[in-house]
Write a structure and sequence with these properties.
Layout lengths: L7 E2 L9 H5 L5 E4 L2 E4 L10 H5 L5 E2 L19 H10 L13 H12 L11 E5 L2 H22 L2 H7 L4 H18 L11 E8 L5 H19 L2 E4 L1 H8 L5 H6 L4 E10 L21
Antiparallel strand pairs: 1-4, 2-3, 5-6, 6-8, 7-8
Helix pairs in contact: 4-8, 5-7, 5-9
The structure holds flavin mononucleotide.
Length: 289
């Protein structure tokens, strides 16, 4: 939160274009006579719109010193068609190789995640990158064991008669969980598929939009992974096990406390690469004009 006087307009640089007045969500900038002034600095959400819109660098914001403000030209952006191809080419690729992921690629994937928007610019968005093979194995063990407990609970004659007919789908899933456990016990990892790394995205427990924030960050990161030629998939099984994790075992495995993990990405270099993309459903939408 900004204190009074921390946000400043350099009057000698200001050309009174009022862009800051128009752009600021918190309505901190206002025109009085021939001058642009600031008020209610405490309501600033530090989104940086004011410094990014000012054509004369006349706004002094403590969160955004000149080293954190970067100009870009439209030609620096990917063309819309290129972006569309990237989005269509991005796939979940589980054909992982044993090759190491370049350090620089991991950094860019995390930078992309953290470039995502957050509700009310809370920036309550955090990452943990797991590369330790033992910890990766613990994550898989945690997931497989969580599901196996459900299997044991439901897979008895009484539960079968009680739920059987109506829960056919659940029993197909139970068979899958049993299979995961059997193959885990014989050294196969159907959860992380021998990923070299897992990137978890989390926020504090009390974040109102933690789930949304983290999953937007995930999508940024997955597109960056695709652009860098790094294979990834969403660790949905881990997330489903996490939903049953009352004792916060996963947090303990990762050394985290009082946080909520909302998304996870398994990462490795690909053993196979997609050279085609397939069309999904035809575009269909309601157009309420
Ligand atoms: C919420 C969510 C959970 C997922 N969980 C898993 C998972 O646990 N394991 C896995 O291999 N893929 C998982 N996936 C990947 C989907 O299977 C995949 O996105 C879908 O089959 C479409 O393929 P594509 O990502 O290549 O377009 C998940 C995807 C989403 C969006």
């Amino acid at each position: 939160m900004l204190q009074k006087g921390e946000l400043e307009i350099k009057d000698e640089l200001c050309i009174r274009c009022q862009r800051c007045v128009r752009i600021c969500l918190a309505e901190i900038f206002y025109k009085e006579g021939n001058r642009i002034l600031v008020r209610n600095e405490q309501s600033c959400i530090a989104c940086g719109h004011c410094v990014a819109i000012c054509p004369k660098d006349a706004i002094v914001h403590p969160a955004f010193p000149p080293s954190k403000v970067h100009g870009f030209a439209p030609s620096d952006l990917p063309e819309a068609r290129q972006l569309m191809t990237l989005m269509k080419a991005r796939r979940s690729n589980r054909a992982f190789s044993k090759q190491e992921i370049p350090e620089e690629s991991l950094k860019m994937i995390m930078e992309a995640a953290l470039a995502a928007p957050t509700a009310r610019n809370s920036r309550d968005l955090h990452l943990v990158l797991v590369r330790n093979p033992q910890v990766l194995q613990e994550i898989t063990r945690f997931t497989v064991e969580t599901f196996y407990k459900v299997v044991k609970l439901l897979d008895n004659a009484f539960a079968r008669t009680l739920l059987g007919g109506s829960l056919k789908e659940a029993y197909v899933l139970l068979a899958k969980f049993k299979e995961q456990k059997r193959r885990f016990d014989s050294g196969e990892d159907l959860i992380l598929r021998d990923a070299k790394a897992v990137l978890f995205i989390y926020s504090s427990k009390q974040s109102r939009f933690g789930k949304e924030d983290c999953n937007l960050a995930y999508q940024n990161a997955s597109l960056m992974a695709e652009a860098l030629g790094v294979a990834q998939f969403y660790t949905g099984f881990v997330m489903a096990a996490l939903a049953r994790d009352k004792k916060e075992r996963l947090n303990a495995i990762l050394g985290l406390k009082d946080v909520k993990i909302h998304a996870g990405m398994a990462l490795a270099m690909p053993a196979l690469k997609f050279e085609k993309y397939v069309e999904r459903e035809d575009m269909d939408y309601l157009d309420l004009r």
